[in-house]
């Protein structure tokens, strides 16, 4: 029963990710740009993932940064993007996932880091491609071919931002999500 429940959650996530990617690729994703306090948003998002972190025995921590940091974004798209990065970090972390906000001229960066095994050089080049994964699930015998990181890339680009990753094998990975501070309602992304 546990395996069936886990596979059901995995497949639901996979279908949701594929639908999101499809809507983004076909310019069918509507956006509702609003003013969001990224600092409060980050705390709330990490709080929602606390159950997953406890189950995996991972400590979540927001490192010092701006107490208030407003951006213009679609909250639903931002939530999907940040939750994907955080849940991925929780799955790969050894014991700790940290997040930090840094303001820059005209933009803000959200750094999410884990202390897991890191990402190999070969995997770094394929990380944001649909269906790429190196994670093998011994319980089901499947390779977990997710769409989480490709969705993060597409969602972040839709918001006018970008995502990158740096890693050292054995020392974890750090994702950087850059978002513009201001965005005009109805503004289309460049393709």
Can you tell me about this structure?
The protein is α+β, with helices and mostly antiparallel strands and 191 residues long. It contains six helices and nine strands. A five-stranded mixed beta sheet has the order 2-4-5-9-8, with helices on one face. Strands 1-3 form a two-stranded antiparallel sheet. Strand 4 (96-104) and strand 5 form a beta hairpin. Helix 1 (2-25) runs parallel beside helix 6, helix 2 (38-48) crosses helix 4 (75-92) and helix 4 runs antiparallel to helix 6 (148-158). It is globular. It starts with a helix and ends in an 11-residue tail after the last strand. Mean pLDDT is 79; it is low at 136-145 and 184-191.
Which range best describes the helical content: under 10%, 10-25%, 25-40%, 40-55%, 55-70% or over 70%? 40-55%
Low-confidence stretches: 136-145, 184-191
State the helix count.
6
Shape: globular
State the major sheet. Answer: 5 strands, mixed
Order of helices and strands: HEHHEEHEEHEEHEE
> How many β-strands, per DSSP?
9
Relative strand content: 25-35%
Feature tags:
191 residues, alpha+beta, five-stranded mixed β-sheet, two-stranded antiparallel ribbon, 40% helix, 26% strand, globular, disordered C terminus
Which secondary structure elements does this structure contain, and how are they paired or packed?
Elements: H1 2-25, E1 33-37, H2 38-48, H3 50-56, E2 59-62, E3 70-74, H4 75-92, E4 96-104, E5 107-114, H5 121-126, E6 136-137, E7 142-143, H6 148-158, E8 162-167, E9 173-180
């Amino acid at each position: 029963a546990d395996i069936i429940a886990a596979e059901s959650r995995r497949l639901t996530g996979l279908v949701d990710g594929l639908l999101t990617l499809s809507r983004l690729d076909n310019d069918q994703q509507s956006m509702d740009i609003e003013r969001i306090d990224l600092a409060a948003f980050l705390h709330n998002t990490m709080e929602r993932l606390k159950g997953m972190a406890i189950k995996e025995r991972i400590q979540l921590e927001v490192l010092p940064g701006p107490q208030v940091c407003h951006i213009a974004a679609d909250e639903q798209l931002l939530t999907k993007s940040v939750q994907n990065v955080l849940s991925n970090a929780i799955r790969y972390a050894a014991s700790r996932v940290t997040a930090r906000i840094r303001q820059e001229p005209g933009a803000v960066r959200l750094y999410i880091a884990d202390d897991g095994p890191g990402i190999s050089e070969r995997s770094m080049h394929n990380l944001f491609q649909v269906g790429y994964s190196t994670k093998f699930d011994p319980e089901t015998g499947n390779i977990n071919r997710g769409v989480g990181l490709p969705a993060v890339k597409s969602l972040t680009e839709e918001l006018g931002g970008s995502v990158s990753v740096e890693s050292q094998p054995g020392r974890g990975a750090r994702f950087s999500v850059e978002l513009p501070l201001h965005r005009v309602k109805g503004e289309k992304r460049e393709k």
